[in-house]
Amino acid sequence: MAHLLVVDDERSMREMLEILLQKVGHSVVAEEDAGAACERLEHEEFDLVVTDLRLGQRSGLEVLERAKALHPHTEVLMITAFASAENAVQAMKLGAYDYLTKPFKIDELLVVVEKALEKRALVRENVQLRRQLGDRARFAGILGKSAAMRELFALLDKVAPSRTTVLVTGESGVGKELVARALHEKGGRAAGPFVAVNCGAIPEGLIESELFGHEKGAFTGAVAAKPGLFSEASGGTLFLDEIGELPLAVQVKLLRALQQRVVRPVGGLRDVEIDVRIVAATNRDLEQEVREGRFREDLYYRLNVIGLKVPPVRERREDVLLLAEHFLQAFAKEQGRPGMAFSRAAQRALLDYDFPGNVRELENVVERAVTLSDGDEIEPDTFPAAVRGASPTFAVPYAGALSGVDLPDDFDLQAWLDACEREMLEKALERSRGVKTEAAKLLGITFRSIRYRLEKLRMEGGGS
């Protein structure tokens, strides 16, 4: 149940709104003038204020300004019989959620009220999520409040202080490098360097030199001696990502380095002592690789002294919104759009999707949504089709609609897109029997979005 303030100097309208909003389950307080409403706001916080624009000699904009000054997260809905573009723009600039013109349809009012209250609830949830982004749900930059992540944090806390070799496993995109960095930052080597190398990204002929270094003249192009990554990471941590990609010949030398704590540069005659902690990572099943002869068994056991498995996103759904909020804050700040939030529908879409690309895919989805969103509230229509839950079979007829057709010289892309949009709107309205809220759900867009599209294409939208 939400707490609402209704302000209207017309008694019949005020009482109608009060009864209507109480009937749908809200607690409602009514005032007839701006002064009384502003006084009420001094002592009471409301989830939503519904105010007329003209209140006798005073303006509902006063109520709007006072509400936002005292309670920034309170939503305000303006209603008026004297609509003008100037008034609408001013109200929205002052922070109004929306602007309805009398006479309005009851269903349309209720939809807007519920949407405003949904946004208010989302703001509360976002505040809670931001609190959870503190130390309780964070370990050296890794976010998570799920049982699986709390267990991982506990293991990291125990393992970090030692110099024991650690093998981090998990699917692509789960954040294995973040785990390696956490081990480094929380351990006794935080003051030393953290050096990361992707073993699969270095050509096979160069990887030995990259890891162990080389002497001048060791091979063509070696015009000077060069220390390897083991030496560069001295006193710190060397993170060997995609360790399963390491050639067998180099695996032998890595095993020796781990066992004897020395490396021999390519072309060198003497061993060089090393002081480095090794953290390796892979998304491969190394036990299977050992069985099939692609990875040395002795090296596997030497690396897997401590094994840490990072769970995929589908096994830690409690963390999805926490991670999404973290990325939303970062990208919204980067694009100069603070105050953005996910709608309920967007949250549901994120929670229902498995994210096969894990945290990396979730980050990309949020960045795309921030970029494509027109307003402060992110809706599912800014997500890729897979995240929205759109059926791939539905898109098949349209994906190849122009296949085999030559592009005319006078082709008008916008006109063609408008025609497609019009057709889909007509089909949705037909299936929903003219009810715009239902049609919007069928199309995966918001009520405000469908209303805008209908007005843009000058279509009759039927009921609300």
Automatic annotation (TrEMBL):
<dbReference type="InterPro" id="IPR002197">
    <property type="entry name" value="HTH_Fis"/>
</dbReference>
<keyword id="KW-0547">Nucleotide-binding</keyword>
<feature type="modified residue" description="4-aspartylphosphate">
    <location>
        <position position="52"/>
    </location>
</feature>
<keyword id="KW-0238">DNA-binding</keyword>
<feature type="domain" description="Response regulatory">
    <location>
        <begin position="3"/>
        <end position="117"/>
    </location>
</feature>
<dbReference type="InterPro" id="IPR009057">
    <property type="entry name" value="Homeodomain-like_sf"/>
</dbReference>
<keyword id="KW-0902">Two-component regulatory system</keyword>
<keyword id="KW-0804">Transcription</keyword>
<dbReference type="InterPro" id="IPR025944">
    <property type="entry name" value="Sigma_54_int_dom_CS"/>
</dbReference>
<dbReference type="InterPro" id="IPR003593">
    <property type="entry name" value="AAA+_ATPase"/>
</dbReference>
<dbReference type="Pfam" id="PF00072">
    <property type="entry name" value="Response_reg"/>
</dbReference>
<dbReference type="GO" id="GO:0006355">
    <property type="term" value="P:regulation of DNA-templated transcription"/>
</dbReference>
<dbReference type="GO" id="GO:0043565">
    <property type="term" value="F:sequence-specific DNA binding"/>
</dbReference>
<dbReference type="Pfam" id="PF00158">
    <property type="entry name" value="Sigma54_activat"/>
</dbReference>
<dbReference type="InterPro" id="IPR025943">
    <property type="entry name" value="Sigma_54_int_dom_ATP-bd_2"/>
</dbReference>
<feature type="domain" description="Sigma-54 factor interaction">
    <location>
        <begin position="142"/>
        <end position="371"/>
    </location>
</feature>
<keyword id="KW-0805">Transcription regulation</keyword>
<dbReference type="Pfam" id="PF02954">
    <property type="entry name" value="HTH_8"/>
</dbReference>
<dbReference type="InterPro" id="IPR027417">
    <property type="entry name" value="P-loop_NTPase"/>
</dbReference>
<dbReference type="InterPro" id="IPR011006">
    <property type="entry name" value="CheY-like_superfamily"/>
</dbReference>
<keyword id="KW-0597">Phosphoprotein</keyword>
<keyword id="KW-0067">ATP-binding</keyword>
<dbReference type="InterPro" id="IPR025662">
    <property type="entry name" value="Sigma_54_int_dom_ATP-bd_1"/>
</dbReference>
<dbReference type="InterPro" id="IPR002078">
    <property type="entry name" value="Sigma_54_int"/>
</dbReference>
<dbReference type="InterPro" id="IPR058031">
    <property type="entry name" value="AAA_lid_NorR"/>
</dbReference>
<dbReference type="InterPro" id="IPR001789">
    <property type="entry name" value="Sig_transdc_resp-reg_receiver"/>
</dbReference>
<protein>
    <submittedName>
        <fullName>Type IV fimbriae expression regulatory protein PilR</fullName>
    </submittedName>
</protein>
<dbReference type="GO" id="GO:0000160">
    <property type="term" value="P:phosphorelay signal transduction system"/>
</dbReference>
<dbReference type="GO" id="GO:0005524">
    <property type="term" value="F:ATP binding"/>
</dbReference>
<dbReference type="Pfam" id="PF25601">
    <property type="entry name" value="AAA_lid_14"/>
</dbReference>
